Structure formats: structure tokens, C-alpha cells
Amino acid sequence: PFDPASWMLVGIVAIHAATFMIFLFEWLSPAGFNMK
């Protein structure tokens, strides 16, 4: 998988995974979003 389309797909998936993990960490942290 060394063609540009595969690398672009891998990059998009990695960015979305990192964004989701950061959002989940901020949501679960006490100092993050207050859902009460």
C-alpha cells in the first residue's frame, strides 16, 4: 500500500482516530466538558 490514495486514506483515518481519542479523553476528564 504505497500509492497516494492509500496513504491519504491512512492519514485521514489516523487524524480521525486521534481527534476521537482527544475528544473522548476531554469528555471523560473531570476538568473537561460538564454534562450535568
List keywords for this structure.
single chain; 36 residues; mainly alpha; 1 helix
For the sheet with most strands, the description reads: none
Structural class: mainly alpha
Low-confidence stretches: none
Q: How many beta strands in the DSSP annotation?
A: 0
**Compute the gyration radius: what is it?**
15 Å
Give, in order, the helices and strands.
H
End-to-end span in angstroms? 46 Å
In percent, how much strand structure appears in the residues? under 5%
Helical content stands at: 55-70%
Transmembrane segments: 6-28
Keywords: Membrane, Transmembrane, Transmembrane helix
Fold and architecture overview:
With 36 residues, the protein is mostly helical. It contains 1 helix and no strands. The termini are far apart. The mean pLDDT is 84.
Briefly, what is this?
This protein has 36 residues and is an all-alpha fold. It has one helix spanning 4-28.
Please describe the topology of this protein:
Layout: H1 4-28
